[in-house]
Amino acid sequence: MCRFLAYRGDPVFMEDLISAPSHSLVHQSLHAEEAKTGTNGDGFGVGWYGDKPMPGLYREVHPAWSDENLKSLCTQVRSSLFFAHVRAATGTATTRANCHPFTHDQWMFMHNGQIGGWPLIRRKVESLIPDEFYGSRTGTTDSEALFLVALSNGLEHDPVHAMARTLATVRTIMLEAGITEPLRFAAALTDGQHLYAFRWASDDKPPTLYWREREGALLVVSEPIDHTHEGWEEIPHGCALEARAGQLHKTRCLNEAMAQAA
Hints:
There is one protein chain. By secondary structure, this protein is of the alpha+beta class. The chain has one domain: Aminohydrolase, N-terminal nucleophile (Ntn) domain (Glutamine Phosphoribosylpyrophosphate, subunit 1, domain 1, 4-Layer Sandwich). It has helices at 15-18, 25-31, 68-76, 118-126, 131-134, 142-152, 159-176, 254-261, and strands at 3-13, 44-48, 56-60, 78-86, 102-104, 107-115, 183-190, 195-201, 210-214, 217-221, 233-234, 239-243, 250-253. The strands form 2 sheets. Strands 3-2-4-1-10-9-11 form a 7-stranded antiparallel β-sheet. Strands 5-6-7-8-12-13 form a 6-stranded antiparallel β-sheet. The model has no long low-confidence stretch (mean pLDDT 94).
């Protein structure tokens, strides 16, 4: 399983969260503690927002712990909203196009988990992506496909409902294909202003996901970036954290939204 981090708050240098903490994301790329494997060395990516509405993006197939360009970038770039992801591949190739985050216009998305039996249903899931979004598909991962299907389901109107509808549709396709492997989904999504985080699985083993807010700064992580675990709250299984700019954060039930979308 992959590890990731999402931040929204006052501008900070990305190194303050991605590489400096004792259990930083770079450290987790080699020594993850709450994943199936401790090593997440199948590439990495960072995406950030600056003065333009579209995010900047740097992705590479090297392990995060050994990439000097990543270190240099993080020491120089300061942002009020950024994503970072270290990848442990689950069956698709280790290529730059398969590294997270994925973007389309102002949207940015990253995922930890898997669609069980992906090779068997890949063609059917990809057929759900309309032409207006399919041109953004550059890789072969289930994660990118989920993102593009969700875009077609109305992310701009209600991201939680759009993602729930996407998960419900894909789960139906899996069941119809007789796939018994689980669908597991921990993800972060943003349009450059609002931040959403999701934790869901078709079984009782959803990927780990935590959040913490201090002085108005929100951090969402696969596992805490320090060893004290102070102030971290686990996002409940089957829930989405909705953090809209200027509003109180709230948790929404994905299962209820999926039932409405069915």
